[in-house]
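## tool: complex_structure
## caller: assistant
## args:
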Amino acid sequence: MLKFPNEESVHKYMTRSILGRTVMEVLAHGPTRASVCEQLKALPVAETSRYCSEENSFCWRVHSFGKKIKQDKRLDLIHQFMVNLPLIGRVDLENPDDLFYICEDYGPNPNSAPEEPFYVYVGRKVTEGQRYLAHQYSVKTRHFIGNTSMDAQLSLIMANQGGVKPNMFVFDPFVGTGSLLVAAAHFGGYVAGCDINVNTIHGVGKSSRSFGKPRGEVTLRGNDENILANMRQYNLHDRYLDVMVSDFALNVWRKQELFDVIVTDPPYGIREKTRKIGTNKHYDELEDQTLEGHIPSTMSYHLADIFKDLLNFSARYLRLHGRLVYWLPVVNADYSDDHIPQHPCLKVIANSEQKINMTISRRLITMEKYQSMQNINPLDQVEAEIKTRTYEGSNAIRKIYFPNNSGSQSHNKSLPLT
Ligand SMILES: C[S@@+](CC[C@H](N)C(=O)[O-])C[C@H]1O[C@@H](n2cnc3c(N)ncnc32)[C@H](O)[C@@H]1O
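## result:
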């Protein structure tokens, strides 16, 4: 049970709740139905008069956890409880002014659920959360997607963690197909991103929507499979600033303290090896005319460097009190909180685990920039630091994810990690 100062604050809270279904004002609760009925009967008139009037239509619903309750039993329950409240308005099953819930908890194991519930709550619905948004923005019906498009519900949760509010400047440095930008734009952020993959940014190459055929001519969706088209699909295009092809390892930004929120899903090297622009060859051997139109070669981008770059970048380019939100893959056997990459200007304010399998999880890390780079003594360490060797070397997590081979399963579309 949660305590709120008033109903207004509940409504405000639930306008941002992606996972919460319904908030109800608890009128009575206890380990037996009889004790709950007694409490309902004893409710003061001053309280019940808010909803027990001739003008107020009402309806009752039964929710059971850990056991299925048949329809006739549900009706019995409703009759048993409703007589204890002096409801005198009309019943409206479709659109009642007040909706009352009987919630019965039969424990976590439906196979051995007891005859009687462990605990019973009776409450009045106050408001609902935003779970429908996961459906509204589902990648299943999205115009432009790729193999690594982030699930809509997680994207919205990430935007929430970033505290995205209207008119904030939100940036995703590993933008891919822009799922995180869609979520940030939903909450009113102005969004921008970059990605090293020219095909993704320009919406060319093979399409995930047409079973690997080229984008554009073969898809019914026209030749604009790109992030802007997604924004148009959701009528969020007025929030779209731009995306560009750029290697995150090579900084292109001049103005510091620019972004309000950096939200991103960096590559872990599981589907594809992590790359950045560079080479071990000597470029001065190239003649001037070969440099024009030259496609630079890439080299391995170690995860340790990706996360250090991400924190160093955030410390520099986030405004004060701006937030960085990103996924960090961890090896369950040796994880501890001090393995989270650190920076003197950033502090971890949230860390939630999503289990992937027995070996690996990923953690949604939220950091806040609590001091500017200028405030730090230049003699002090102002670079990101990682106190574990987990992310060192090329394809560190990939080697743990595919212990027996180099990752031939990486073409499997059901891989949860990227
Ligand atoms: C996990 S995906 C991001 C998916 C994205 N959140 C979406 O919903 O589509 C990681 C992205 O990082 C990009 N990437 C990999 N190396 C990069 C680099 N050095 N600089 C910028 N982007 C890079 C990849 O091309 C890929 O699109």
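## assistant note: The chain has two domains: 7-130, 133-411. Residues 146, 148-150, 174, 176-177, 179-180, 195-197, 200, 247-249, 265, 267, 274-276, 301, 418 surround S-adenosylmethionine (CB under 6 Å). Handing back to user.
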